[in-house]
């Protein structure tokens, strides 16, 4: 395994689309925030203290307990270029904060990229587990195992009354953030999405865009996560999000049925027009590309288009991001140049899939 493998391979295993309810739930994530006792939190720590955190975690990595969970690789952020860090952000393997603001950050990645342990981000440790489809309990189980192993080798900052201590007060307690990334195009098209999201916000959950806090819900992808970490157990937080997600899945499925039953030909026309635009466009901005790819994924998931699969769309959702576009071009690109390269890359990928289908007798 190497840095180039993490950088150049667009689709991580958690993006494969092969998981429960993966036509609606893009991914499930559990993240644990942890800090080490007697070492200042990253905002106040010195370079030597930040390095001490990395050394302590690296030592834990060498243990048999840790290696039994998976095969891991550690990357030091200072050794990466700005473009390489941006690509890791686009793959959701590190946060924008770790890429842009951490002075002495590192990340530990599992071979299949479902586990990412960020070091010296906003907290000393951010243990993140990402699974394809609707697998919240599975993601929590792995995060909990990693947390238990690390706790054998490092001394966490923990208070009997308040729980795990974190840089941000909203993470104090369990330190857990559980989230699902959901593709909800039918709720958007039927104009039910605002009502759904309003109801979600009233029961202790928060809705963000594809890259978390401060990002837009591009391509009809919404990240739904818990807002409260204190006063509830991890299991209660996971179960609450699981229950709400099941209800949203049912609403999205009902909205899809309504669209197809009420005016199927117009919906087919809308979605297939997006396919035509993506297959032929010479210039396309990122927002339009995300919107068209959302249409294409809905067409695949509802059986309107059968010569593509969701994995192709997941791959394109990553490949069209600025970091990947520039990496594959081998140079920095202006926004206008990226729009041209984005359209070209989409055409090439869709044509390759179509050719493969024809060669296989599709």
Fold and architecture overview:
With 362 residues, the chain is α+β, with helices and mostly antiparallel strands. It has 2 domains: 1-173, Creatine Kinase, Chain A, domain 2, CATH 3.30.590.10; 263-360. 48% of the residues lie in helices and 15% in strands. It has helices spanning 3-8, 47-61, 64-67, 82-90, 96-100, 136-151, 185-189, 193-201, 234-280, 286-301, 310-319, 322-329, 335-359, and strands spanning 25-34, 72-76, 106-110, 115-119, 125-132, 158-159, 163-164, 176-183, 205-208, 221-226. A hairpin with a 3-residue loop joins strand 6 (158-159) and strand 7 (163-164). The protein is globular, with a radius of gyration of 21 Å.
| Overall CATH architecture of the largest domain | 2-Layer Sandwich
Strand content: 15-25%
What is the string of SSEs from the N terminus onward? HEHHEHHEEEHEEEHHEEHHHHH
User: What is the third-level CATH name, the topology of the largest domain?
Assistant: Creatine Kinase, Chain A, domain 2
Backbone shape: globular
| Number of discrete domains | 2
Catalytic activity: L-arginyl-[protein] + ATP = N(omega)-phospho-L-arginyl-[protein] + ADP + H(+)
InterPro entries: Arg_Kinase (IPR023660), ATP-guanido_PTrfase (IPR000749), ATP-guanido_PTrfase_AS (IPR022415), ATP-guanido_PTrfase_cat (IPR022414), Gln_synth/guanido_kin_cat_dom (IPR014746)
GO molecular function: ATP binding; creatine kinase activity; protein arginine kinase activity
Binding site for ATP: 27-31, 92, 126, 177-181, 208-213
């Amino acid at each position: 395994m190497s840095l180039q493998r993490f950088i150049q391979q667009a689709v991580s295993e958690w993006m494969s689309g092969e998981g429960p309810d993966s036509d609606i739930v893009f991914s499930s994530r559990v993240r644990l925030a942890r800090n080490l006792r007697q070492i200042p939190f990253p905002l106040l720590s010195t370079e030597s203290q930040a390095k001490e955190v990395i050394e302590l975690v690296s030592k834990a990595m060498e243990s048999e307990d840790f290696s039994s969970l998976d095969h891991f690789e550690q990357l030091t952020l200072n050794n990466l270029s700005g473009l390489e860090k941006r690509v890791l952000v686009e793959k959701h393997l590190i946060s924008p904060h770790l890429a842009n603001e951490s002075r002495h950050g590192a990340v530990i990645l599992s071979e299949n990229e479902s586990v990412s342990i960020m070091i010296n981000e906003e907290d000393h440790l951010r243990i993140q587990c990402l699974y394809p489809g609707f697998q919240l309990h599975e993601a929590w189980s792995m995060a909990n195992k990693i947390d238990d192993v690390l706790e054998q080798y490092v001394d966490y900052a923990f208070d009997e009354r308040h729980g795990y201590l974190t840089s941000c007060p909203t993470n104090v307690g369990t330190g857990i953030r559980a989230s699902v990334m959901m593709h909800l195009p039918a709720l958007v098209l039927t104009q039910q999405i605002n009502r759904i999201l309003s109801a979600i916000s009233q029961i202790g959950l928060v809705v963000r865009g594809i890259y978390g806090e401060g990002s837009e819900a591009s391509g009809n992808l919404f990240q739904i996560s818990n807002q409260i970490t204190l006063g509830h157990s991890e299991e209660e937080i996971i179960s609450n999000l699981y229950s709400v997600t099941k209800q949203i899945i049912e609403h999205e499925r009902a909205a899809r049925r309504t669209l197809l039953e009420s005016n199927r030909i117009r919906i087919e026309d809308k979605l297939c027009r997006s396919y035509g635009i993506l297959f032929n466009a010479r210039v396309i901005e990122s927002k339009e590309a995300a919107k068209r790819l959302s249409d294409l994924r809905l067409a695949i998931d509802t059986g309107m288009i059968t010569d593509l699969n969701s994995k192709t769309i997941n791959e394109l959702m990553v490949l069209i991001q600025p970091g990947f576009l520039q990496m594959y071009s081998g140079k920095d690109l202006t926004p206008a140049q990226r729009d041209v390269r984005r359209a070209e890359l989409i055409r090439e990928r869709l044509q390759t899939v179509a050719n493969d289908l024809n060669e296989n007798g599709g």
